[in-house]
Each structure stands twice: as structure tokens, then as C-alpha cells.
Amino acid sequence: MKKLTVFTFSLLSTLISFAQADESIVDEEAKAILDKVSAIYETYETIKSGFEMIVELPESDENEMQQGTFYLRGDSYKIVLEDTEIITDATTQWTYMKEVEELQISDYEPEENGITPSEIFSIYKKDYSYFYNGKDELDKKKYHAIDLTPYDKEQPYFKIRLWINAEDSHIEQAKVFDKNGNRYIYKISDFEPNIDLTDNFFSFDVKKYEENGEIEIIDLR
Prior knowledge:
By secondary structure, the protein is mostly beta strands. It has 3 helices and 12 strands; from the N terminus they run H-H-E-E-E-E-E-E-E-E-E-E-E-H-E. It has a 12-stranded mixed beta sheet, covered by helices on one side.
């Protein structure tokens, strides 16, 4: 579960410019669609969204699944699952495991080669080549399918496929193709931009729990 959780959060910073690509491999149709996506998401100061992650494991007949809600504002985020909450203000990270009533506090350190949660809607801007893979239909909706391949071949995955709603240019599904054969499918739902999220929303009220002695607090800083 820990590995699955870390991967979820590493896929879910500041928007950065497109990486410079060899013009000979730039797919102009894909670039036009992604430029439109970028222009829309750059207008959002905050995001709230439900998500579902499905993990397809080659050695298993049953898929793993998690559902939750995430909130983003700049580099700060909160991800709420049934049994876990992870909160960061981009300086400190709080990981609250409800079942064992344990809170871990640590310095926020993004994965060296990972994708931070605030980049979930702009991952195509990080050192990828991108290719238009045609139109697709999911649940009776029409999508543009775009494949991203990382320039860095040391990445644990070799491809990410995005499904972009053809009507509103929102990313609604992503599939990560891991080199070990696993496939991670992310489905976005109940998307709400520009909701009011305060600074306190992206922190954990440790004192409240310390006074009541309700949970074990482990400070790893």
C-alpha cells in the first residue's frame, strides 16, 4: 500500500514552459491541443477534484483501486483517501494514517524524478515529446488521445497517454505505462476550479490531537 500511495501522490509546482524539443519530432496537432489545455489551466488558482486510480498488475487477475479527492493551490496540496490524508504547504508534509491513528510529520521533499501533484494537469510540460494518437470515445464522450514519452530514459515509465475532452479541453484520464508491466489509470471527476482554499487548509492541526492524545505523532524532521 505504501508504494501504491507514493506513486499516486508523485503523479498527482509551478507551471513551467514547454521543454525545448527537436523540431523534427514535434507533433503540431498535439501541440495545438496541449497549448489550449495549458491556457485553460493557467487561469485556475485552485483546483478540487475527485479521482480514481486503477492499478493493472500483470501478475494478478485483480486490479487495485483507490478513490479520493485532491485539492491544489500552487505547490500546496491535500489528498484525501478513505484511510489516509497527505497534506503539504510545500515546506512541511503531514501524513495521517487513520486506521492506525498515526501522524507522520516530515520536510516536504518531492521525488527526484517524480511528478508533483500540482503538475497532474501539466505533466506534458516536463521534458516530453508528444504525439497525437487520434480521437477516442470513453463513456460516450469524445476525447483527443495524446501520448507522452520522456526524454529521460531512466524514468520508471516509458509512456503516458492523456485523454483530453474534445469539448472543454480538460484532461479527464491518464494512463501510465510502467516498465515493470504495471499500468496506472487515473480518472478525474467532479472537477471544480477556483474554489476558496485558505492557508490553514493546507496544514494539520497537530496541537488539537496532542492535547487529546488521540493519535501517535512521529516527527521525522
